[in-house]
Amino acid sequence: MTTDPSIIPESQHPEARQKGLVIQADLGPYHDIPEQVEPILAQDGTAMWAPETLERLRSRKAWRKQGRYIQSGTTPRRTLPMTDGGHTKLFAFAQSLSEKAHRKIQQEQLDGRVQKWLKRWQKLELRMVAWGDALPEKEPVDAEMDLQPILNNFRQEKQRFVSLKDSLLRFDAHLDPPSMATWEKTLERYRARRFEVLIAETPDQDMELAQEANHTLVQDELARRDPLFLMPYWTFFGRFHKALEVVRFTQSVNDATRIHEFHALFPARKMQRRFTLYLGPTNSGKTYQSLQRLAKAESGSYLAPLRLLALEVSETLNEWGILCNLVTGEERRMVEGAHHSASTIEMLSLSTRYDLCVIDEAQMLGDTDRGWAWTQAILGVQAKEVCVIAAPQALPILKTLLKLTGDPYEIVELERLTPLEIKRQPVKEFQHLEPGTALIAFSRMGVLNLKDQIERATGEKAAVLYGALPPEIRRQQAALFASGKAPYLAASDAIGMGLNLPIRTLLFTQDRKFYNNQEHMLDPMSVRQIAGRAGRYGKNEQGYVGTFGIPLKQIRQGMQTEPK
Questions:
Q1: pLDDT tens across 387-405, in order?
Q2: What pLDDT, on the 0 to 100 scale, is given for residue 300?
Q3: What is the C-alpha to C-alpha distance for residues 291 and 288, in angstroms, rounded to an integer?
Q4: 3 state DSSP class of 93
Q5: Half-sphere exposure (Cβ direction) of 181: Cα atoms closer than 13 Å
Q6: How far apart are the first and last CA of the chain?
């Protein structure tokens, strides 16, 4: 191997210089003396070496340019400190490998990783089967605790599988996805055991209704993208009994309609109520006007479609000095001395009297799965005054319900406070995003993937918002976006339900949504509801809506088509 003469200067030793040799003091940091090379001794005893016998040291990157590779874990021949505080590791030729040898070692190591992964997966499946066999002797809460470490390991192994699969592609190799049959079958056993415990205290005559309520919740679990998703037991317990109340109520309504009008079932028929219908598109001030009235009432309730929205209103009222409780299916935050509450609409107490109640997003009356909750609230809330917030398209059904109850009502029609413009072309690159942009996906995984892609492509932070986000994390993420510390937002369609954020541009990354085990194109109502979050009044003079990475046609059509 020849040395680099630009690095080794002419020797400072007279005899070495005369003979074309070098001494150790002549060497720069990128050359080394091999141990097996014997020195030539000068007359004064100084060790000298021929330049061609020296080893050239290079960094990993430099060897790579030479077509050589340094294996991971190789001990460097020398480590040089750098001016920025880092270090450069240097290696000799003997420590490097040809591309062929390097690829062979990598493949052998990968084969070993695959075998180890298969053994771990088999052991994990056996643990899952053993957990399922022990279910008859355990309470669901205890079984759930035992399951968590198994599921944590499952997710770790799935991630390792993805990593292995990506690595195998470099060698044109393939690894079949692991079978989920054992896992799904075992979870079926758990769900059966959970239902067995739930109905232990349910009267026999309610068995059919209990099965219906349980089936609804299980279908909700199975519809999640995570194939092993299970609601926490006490969450399922609460939702089960609430769902059981719903199916009982529905049955009582069906029975009542054969005798007299079902709205007569509600105690609210014994009081005089007055309704104000706030109708308008998103960002028209409907919610603000209603909350101003709620804040002035001696007692009141705010009913929201989402936990996030109920949380936002409860925080707003408390900031205004109006003590307000928070009541959702997942949590209760009771504030001492509070006469106001903000809750998800399913948590409405039909036996409590209020001075004023605000019912938000009432166009959800037409929702196949949850419309009953808005119907129940409008027919049954015991409030002297009721403010109903809805899109204009909900007016006909609202009139029908209020004609049924006989309650007087006033209509307040509002216009959007800031203009909303459709972008001419889809945005195709993350680098082209402008600050204040929100990208919309329809799953938690989709939102988190967007966050990762935005941050890697732009080098800027991206906030995230989706329905299941814990309250303290939601506040933190919303504050990051509102302050500009996170110029971008990755969010689910949850932001379409009234969450106030300073979004200037909103881009759909999908024009289809998966629900009821099927994929559906976004309808005009959904498009307008979500798109309307762009251009917040007081923060932006105008809002923009468009798409990212998908055609604009469906979103433009939804914006231009009058919802039914």
A1: 999 988 888 889 988 988 8
A2: 96
A3: 5
A4: helix
A5: 2
A6: 80
